[in-house]
Design brief:
The chain is built from 6 helices and 13 strands. Strand 11 and strand 12 form a beta hairpin. The chain is rod-shaped, with a radius of gyration of 35 Å.
């Protein structure tokens, strides 16, 4: 009989068949394995199977009985007031080492993922506000057009013409201001990509797209 003790997964592989066992039972078997050739008292097994807990005197015999059911009665021998692992030549036991570094690595990986996500979210929120303040400082470059009580700004007059097809209503302005609905749009184009920031006093929403129809649809909402 071949038995593999997998402490990480709390399972026993017996003759290539996997059995899930309770945490206390795997702890008892690991303790017996690490002390093979020696008698382990019930008190020792109880303190290893249920650390920092007071359990019934029958807890250890019940756990041993469960282990014998999925393996063989000869696996664990009862000796006086304790138990020991059978050193029979017909039973081969192997223990997979517990990887103590696995959990810290998982925690570190999760932390880095959340840190990256936080940085991305901050960038999404802060960058449009940065654009807003940049435009405010460089207000001599601004053009705007008013539509449906909303003001649309751009540093390029032609870009507003592309979006609204009405050059006559495009005006140069020296200061960014909100429209009557407390909302403004800043429209830019870099290479072939339209970048639009919708800013109001409560939130900032942004999109980037190379599709002019989609960009226009975003600005037509009139609110963030």
């Amino acid at each position: 009989m071949n038995i593999i003790i997998d402490e990480n997964k709390r399972s026993l592989v017996i003759n290539e068949m996997t059995h899930k066992v309770a945490k206390a039972e795997i702890s008892l078997l690991v303790f017996l394995y690490e002390n093979r050739g020696h008698i382990c008292s019930r008190e020792q097994l109880a303190s290893n199977g249920w650390p920092d807990r007071i359990v019934s005197p029958n807890s250890v015999p019940v756990a041993i009985g469960n282990l014998r059911k999925i393996s063989t009665r000869e696996l664990i021998t009862t000796v006086d007031e304790g138990y020991m692992l059978n050193h029979s030549s017909s039973v081969t036991i192997k223990k997979i080492q517990n990887d103590r570094h696995t959990e810290p690595k998982k925690i570190k990986s999760i932390f880095l993922k959340y840190l990256l996500l936080t940085i991305i979210l901050i960038a999404i929120i802060v960058m449009p506000l940065g654009f807003y303040h940049w435009y405010k400082i460089n207000d001599s470059r601004l053009y705007y057009i008013k539509a449906n009580n909303t003001l649309y700004y751009s540093s390029t007059k032609q870009l507003l013409v592309t979006f609204f097809d009405n050059e006559a209503y495009i005006i140069a302005r020296k200061q960014l201001e909100y429209g009557a609905n407390n909302t403004l749009y800043v429209i830019n184009k870099y290479s072939k990509v339209y970048i639009i920031d919708c800013i109001n006093k409560d939130e900032v929403n942004s999109i980037s797209t190379s599709n002019l129809y989609k960009a226009k649809s975003f600005t037509r909402r009139g609110e963030c």
